[in-house]
Every structure is written in C-alpha cells, then in structure tokens.
Amino acid sequence: MAFPSMKSAVLVDGVVLNGPTTDTRAGEKFVEEACRLIMEEVVLKATDVNEKVCEWRPPEQLKQLLDLEMRDAGEPHDRLLKLCRDVIHFSVKTNHPRFFNQLYAGLDYYSLVARFMTEALNPSVYTYEVSPVFVLVEEAVLKKMIEFIGWQEGDGIFNPGGSVSNMYAMNLARYKYWPDVKEKGLSGLPRLILFTSEECHYSVKKSASFLGIGTENVCFVETDGRGKMIPEELEKQVLKARKVGAAPFLVCATSGTTVLGSFDPLDEIADVCERHGLWLHVDASWGGSALMSRKHRQLLHGIHRANSVAWNPHKMLMAGIQCCALLVKGKSDLLKKCYSAKASYLFQQDKFYDVSYDTGDKSIQCSRRPDAFKFWMTWKALGTLGLEERVNRALALSRYLVEEIKKREGFKLLMENMPIFAFGTFLQASERWKRDQSSGKNLMWWPQPSRRGC
Ligand SMILES: *Cc1c(COP(=O)(O)O)cnc(C)c1O
C-alpha cells in the first residue's frame, strides 16, 4: 500500500487516516512463512510415529523456555517466527497417532483445511449478510443431522461445546413449560427438578447451577451394572419429586457416557417422559456419531422421541474442536423464541434478503464461529459412507483393545462385558505402569495399530 502524498493526507488528531493501518508487505511475508512452518512442523509430522507426542516441561520450566513477556516495542520477523516454532515445539501434538486422550480421534485433513479457511476469512455466523455461505452450510449440516436422528422436522444451532448444548437444552425445556421465565426471571417459578443418571456428564450439574436451578435439584437416577439409567428408578424419582411439591420438567439421558461409554435405554426413558410430560434431552455429545453407522445406530434406539439432542462431531467423527450441535425437534421456532433479543442494529427486519437466514438470534452468543463448516468439508470429502466407516473402525478398535487387555499380563479388565465404547478409567494400574513410571519411561505403551483415519 502506498502512502498518500502529503497533499492528500487526511490528518486527524495527528494521525494520517488514509495511510496504511499495517505494514502489509511484512504481514503477508509473515503469514506465508508461518504457514510453511505449520505445514512442515505440524501437518507433515502429524502422522509420524518417530516424532514425539510432546516435549513435556513442567510449568515453571516452560515459563523460562518461552518468551511470554509482552513489551512496549514489537518484535522483529525472525523473532516472531522463532516464537511460532517454540509454541509448536512445546505443544502437545494432538494429531499424533500415539496421542491418546479424551475427545481426540486423530487428524482430519479436510476439517483442518476448513479451519484454515475460516480463520483466514474470519466470518461470524450471526447474519446472512456477513456469512452467506456459512449460514447455508450450517443449515445443510443441521438438516442432515436431524435426518440421522430420525425427526421429520427440526431446528438447531452449533455451540461452543456439548456442555453449552446441554445448558441450552435445559434452558429451552424450562422456557417451554414456563415461557414467562424469559421476562420475569426465576422469581415466579416453582422448585424445578431434573433427572439424569449417575453416569451423566458433569456439565449437567454446571448447567443447573448456572441457570439458577441449583445442583441440589439435579436428581441422579441409579444405573445398572453397565452404567445405564434404570427407567423404573427414574419413574420412582419423578413420582417422589412430585410428592414433595417440586416440579419435574426434564430428563437428560446420555448416549455414550463419559467414563463407561454406556447408552441409556432411550425408548423406555421416553415412555416415562411421555407419561409424566417431561422434556427428554439426549446428551449424545459423544455417542451421537454412532447414528451414522447402520451397524451401531441401534445403540441410540428411540432417539427420535427426544425433544433435543446434543451431538459433537468433533469427537468420533474428527471434525476440529469445536464442532457441537444442539438439535431441537419440530418446527416450533423455540430456539429463536427462547433466545432472541431482537437487537435492532443487527437483525433489522427490512433487509434486502429473506431475514429468516439471520440465524444469530437463536444463539446466546453474538459473534459465532462457523463450526458446521468443518464437519461439512469432511462429510463432502468422505461421504456418508466414509463417516460410517470411521465410526465402525473406532468401535472395532475399542473392541480390539478390550481383547488385548484381556490377554495382556499386568492389565485387568475392570468390567466384564465392557461397553464397546469407553475411554479413560478401565485400566487398573499395572505393575508395568508402576515400573515405567518410576523409571520415567514413556508411558505410552498402548498396542498397535495406529489410529490413523479413525
Ligand atoms: C464430551 C462430552 C460432553 C462435553 O462436551 P464438550 O464439547 O467438551 O463441552 C458432554 N457430554 C458428554 C456425554 C460428552 O461425552
């Protein structure tokens, strides 16, 4: 960008307004070189088992190694690139085939490119005028997810996390039964009570506290030996709550519990909800992806009877974090009614296009990332059949792991008839673990095969 000649310079408060706001050439060069670095140090090394998962340092040591201080003067190009290099070096390579942790299933290249694109375009999906493509993409993805749930009609929104989706659902259910809550707040409400299983995700408790329902009004229903909610116990608890004058309004069932990977019996739970007029929310943040597999979707049998579903494609389906949808049954426009604030500066009703595409008022956020796009790109690249294969492979791998644990000396399967999903706590600390720990050896001894592509 050329500087304007002094003659045409617009000077206000000593600032030349029609000069460049930034050094464009330096900026472009930096982006180019940093992209190359990301390509070399992150993407190309992502699947290389000879690379380390992490260059681990304890916090105090890491603080010394990284230059975290922000100073008055900006730093030069080479220094900034060095900083980028350091950040990559000391970060955990979550795409590494030997990285085993909650949430992650490996690197999806198509979702990654979608992320690069949206980072570069920097859209926000509140209005169609700002994000025409991404608004339509979100609509298309939600429609398809709704089909997989088995609803004739539905609505939805992508949220920053399954936890937030659960909170949305809780608030929607409350709004459905007590719509005055939006204007009048909590003062006019009876003592609300909701039901979930002992194995539910902790976000249920957080949501209850955040929404002013209170954690004591979350009733944790007993589960069977496999971690599934017992519908008869649920019904007993509902009746008990009614007896003491509380107002039951919501059941939050889980499809794929966090620790045991259990799937609550949705059909039977839906019966209880129907009998007692309760909103059924299914937290399928994790297990929802099984809907894409003809082989495994029966795990969520009855999900079409839910009023709302939380489903995170960023887990088993490997869309980048975060990619989480809340889906709501029917065409009641409940999301919009519940959340809209009708900001006149943003959601004008007299725009030059169909303003029903201004979907932002369905959200409690203002600016919102186009998370659906990551999933859309992957879906486009793999097709529904490819996604199905991804789910089948993930489940086959977990089955393989179970068999390996059974065979392997020093390991103990904590639960017979292991659920086919599960992460986390099913390994008992073994002698080998203790040995490796005391010798400081790499603790990642998990068996082959690598999880590439699952
Ligand atoms: C992962 C998970 C969540 C939380 O989702 P975030 O996107 O991490 O907020 C909630 N419920 C269940 C069952 C989950 O597996």
Number of separate structural domains: 3
CATH superfamily of the largest domain: Type I PLP-dependent aspartate aminotransferase-like (Major domain)
Estimate percent helicity.
25-40%
User: Structural class given helices, strands, pairing?
Assistant: alpha/beta
Q: Give the percentage of residues in beta strands.
A: 5-15%
Write out the strand line-up for the largest beta sheet, numbering strands in chain order.
3-9-8-7-6-4-5
Helical stretch count? Answer: 13
CATH architectural grouping of the largest domain: 3-Layer(aba) Sandwich
Q: What is the level 1 CATH name of the largest domain?
A: Alpha Beta
> Which word captures the global form?
globular
What is the subunit arrangement here?
single chain
Spell out the helices and strands N to C: EEHHHHHEHHEHEHEHEEEHHH
- Indicate the CATH topology of the largest domain: Aspartate Aminotransferase, domain 2
Number of strands: 9
Main sheet summary? 7 strands, mixed
